């Protein structure tokens, strides 16, 4: 019973072979039946133990044969075979009253010892095999557990990656939409800046064009009067040739003045159309002296159209040897208009804070440099630019003007037009509270850079 119990535990029969385990649990029943039969039939009980042991060994062998896929079971089976064969042979000889047991008692004793040694040796081997298999089983379980953990982590990581990918995709889409809106807004702001400069120019043109139109109107009226006088003189019987000649000379001069001021008005209108027209980017010879003088006065009259009380001194120092440069006149006109408008704004603000003893002055100077480049300097004696913001004035959307008075694109666009569009430079020299000077440097028509 102890052997059977140990085998059941050793091989975990309740798990591996539950039916055989329940059968072995009743292994005592054949022993009791065998003993009772022996008592009834009055058998000799000397060999009952050997018969019952052989029965138990046979049952164990049957179970081990069913467990032959399990390596320790095969080892135990191999351990039991010699002892089982020996026990069967000894029992047979004992039942047949063979004299061999007494004649070869020493040989049978040696064989029994050998079978027992064989049995215990292989039982130890089976025990070691079971321990090794148990270690391998535990290792496999740990590996399976680790594998399941890794698989769970992979599933979780895939879920997190999917969520993160979805989030990044959504953020990328939002960024694309934001970028599209930003570009649309930027285009609108640039257009607003152009329209603002066009508004300044239009106000200046409206005031500037009024003068030649007044001259045209006045000289037309005078010319009509001269024609009336001439007709009256021709109808007199005593005509005065000298008076008629004098009237004709005056009429010719008036017509010349009408033509001159009409051309002046047409030039102003043409300049306005060029400024408002989209730039083609084609460079043509441009007289900077004429361009700077025209836009200086247009910017001044544009500000006066808003504030009739504003007055400023305009100073021009044009280099007569300047000549022409290859440039886009519309773009340079926008740059000059922006610089002049800022200059007038600065002197107007200083005038508001220092009404007494201060004369607003804006000057423009052109200069031909020895290296072939030309310079345009726009200077004012206004409020100046604080040192803290001097490095930011050419950045897009940065402005020192109050909200609603500037978009922060004027100087940025001017900088791009000068540096990127004309291969020049645009710098600023300023002292806070004293004034500001912007310096435009441009290559001449024959400069290698402009070629």
TrEMBL record:
Coiled coil: 126-185
Pfam families assigned: HATPase_c (PF02518), HisKA (PF00512)
Catalysis performed (reactions): ATP + protein L-histidine = ADP + protein N-phospho-L-histidine
Residue span(s) of domain Histidine kinase: 204-446
Residue ranges of the TM segments: 26-45, 51-68, 75-95, 107-126
One Gene Ontology MF term: phosphorelay sensor kinase activity
Enzyme class: transferase
Record keywords, A-Z: Coiled coil, Kinase, Membrane, Phosphoprotein, Transferase, Transmembrane, Transmembrane helix
EC number: 2.7.13.3
Domain of life: Bacteria
Name of the molecule in the record: histidine kinase
Source organism per UniProt: Hymenobacter taeanensis
């Amino acid at each position: 019973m102890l052997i059977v119990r140990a085998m059941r535990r050793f091989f975990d029969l309740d798990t591996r072979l539950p039916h055989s385990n329940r059968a072995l649990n009743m292994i005592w029943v054949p022993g009791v039946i065998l003993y009772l039969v022996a008592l009834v039939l009055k058998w000799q009980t000397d060999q009952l133990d050997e018969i019952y042991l052989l029965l138990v060994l046979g049952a164990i062998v049957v179970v081990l044969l069913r467990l032959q896929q399990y390596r320790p079971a095969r080892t135990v089976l191999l351990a039991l075979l010699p002892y089982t064969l020996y026990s069967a042979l000894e029992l047979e000889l004992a039942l047949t009253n063979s004299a061999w047991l007494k004649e070869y008692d020493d040989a049978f004793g040696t064989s029994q010892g050998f079978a027992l040694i064989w049995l215990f040796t292989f039982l130890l081997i089976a025990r070691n095999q079971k321990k090794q298999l148990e270690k391998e089983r535990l290792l496999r379980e740990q590996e399976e557990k680790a594998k399941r953990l890794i698989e769970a982590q992979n599933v979780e990581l895939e879920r997190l990656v999917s969520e993160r990918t979805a989030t990044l995709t959504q953020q990328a889409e939002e960024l694309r939409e934001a970028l599209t809106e930003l570009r649309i807004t930027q285009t609108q702001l640039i257009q607003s800046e152009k329209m603002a400069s066009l508004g300044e120019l239009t106000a200046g043109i409206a005031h500037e064009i009024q003068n030649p139109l007044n001259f045209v109107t006045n000289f037309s009226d005078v010319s009509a009067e001269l024609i009336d006088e001439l007709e009256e003189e021709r109808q007199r019987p005593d005509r005065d040739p000298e008076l008629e000649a004098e009237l004709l000379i005056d009429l010719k001069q008036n017509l010349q003045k009408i033509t001159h001021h009409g051309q002046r008005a047409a030039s102003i209108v043409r300049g306005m159309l060029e400024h408002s027209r989209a730039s083609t980017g084609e460079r043509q010879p441009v007289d900077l002296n004429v361009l700077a003088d025209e836009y200086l006065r247009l910017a001044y009259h544009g500000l006066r159209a808003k504030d009739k009380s504003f007055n400023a001194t305009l100073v021009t120092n044009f280099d007569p040897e300047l000549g022409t440069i290859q440039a886009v006149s519309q773009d340079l006109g926008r740059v000059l208009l922006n610089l002049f408008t800022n200059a007038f704004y600065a002197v107007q603000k200083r005038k508001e804070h220092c009404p007494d003893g201060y004369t607003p002055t804006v000057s423009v100077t052109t200069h031909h440099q020895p290296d072939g480049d030309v310079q345009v300097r726009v200077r004012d004696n206004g409020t100046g630019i604080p040192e803290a913001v001097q490095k930011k004035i050419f950045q897009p959307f940065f402005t020192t003007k109050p909200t609603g008075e500037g978009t922060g694109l004027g100087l940025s666009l001017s900088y791009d037009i000068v540096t990127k569009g004309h291969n020049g430079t645009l710098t600023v020299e300023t002292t806070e509270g004293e004034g500001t000077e912007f310096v435009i440097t441009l290559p001449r028509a024959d400069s290698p850079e402009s070629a």
